Amino acid sequence: MSIIQALKRSVGVLGALLFASGALAQSPAGQWEMSISGKVLGASAIGIAYIEILDDGSLEGFAEIRGGSSLLTVSGSWTGSGSGLFGSLSVTSELFGDRSYEFIGTFRDGRSVSMSCFNGDGDRIRIAGRPAVEIPDCSGVYLGSMRQYGLWGVLEVTVVSTEYPGLYELGGLLLLGGQAFDLAGHAVVNRRGSFVANLENLTSESLAISSVWGSIRPGQRLSGVGLDIFDGSAIRFSLR
């Protein structure tokens, strides 16, 4: 018996009637701004996600995690009874493919959602959050300094809004060690101004991607730390 089958059986006759009729007294349906914590393949996974839970039993969204290689897309299905929900989801990375999870969780109608996600590889992730709200537009051009490999450089980042809440496209230029590098990537920003982002070095002959995280004050300041996901070199930057 699979985990999901066991969970469905444990709900009982009343839960089965609710699944069949769709007549939940409460519903987690809506757009949610969520935090991510836990471990994936033995490594820490901390990040930000926006997930939309739909009345038709599906869910979809996107996320960024610290140390990640690219924007993650999330899709899956759910069902529930009372204030509980469970289901399955798939997390897709352009570089590393799909990872599949089952989850159990709870919700408070229109107030909060929490999911515990797990799989056979030992991944354990908690995703929890509140209804998504409109956040100040972070679009703009930010210019300042960056340090990597013991060198100081000049970094310019252009932040462009998308049609999705909290999701931004990034473009940029880095001058470091007498060389110029074109950059591109994505950032996910929450209501507190915290962000997690990835930046790919488009100029490098080999694949070079940095994961960075920190805080942003729209139109004023963009700062944080990070690392090159392949060589582990530390990054620090402060832009205005």
Q: What order do the helices and strands come in, and which of them pair?
A:
Blueprint: H1 3-21, E1 30-40, E2 43-44, E3 47-53, E4 58-65, E5 72-81, E6 84-93, E7 97-108, E8 112-118, E9 124-131, E10 140-148, E11 151-161, E12 167-176, E13 179-189, E14 194-201, E15 209-217, E16 221-228, E17 234-239
Antiparallel strand pairs: 1-2, 1-3, 1-9, 3-4, 4-5, 5-6, 6-7, 7-8, 8-9, 10-11, 10-17, 11-12, 12-13, 13-14, 14-15, 15-16, 16-17
Describe the structure.
The longest helix has 19 residues. The N terminus is likely disordered. This protein has two domains: 129 residues, Lipocalin (Beta Barrel), CATH 2.40.128; 100 residues, Lipocalin (Beta Barrel), CATH 2.40.128.120. 8% of the residues lie in helices and 61% in strands. The strands form two sheets. Strands 1-3-4-5-6-7-8-9 form an eight-stranded antiparallel beta barrel. It is built from one helix and 17 strands. With 240 residues, it is mainly beta. Strand 15 and strand 16 form a beta hairpin. The N and C termini lie far apart (56 Å).
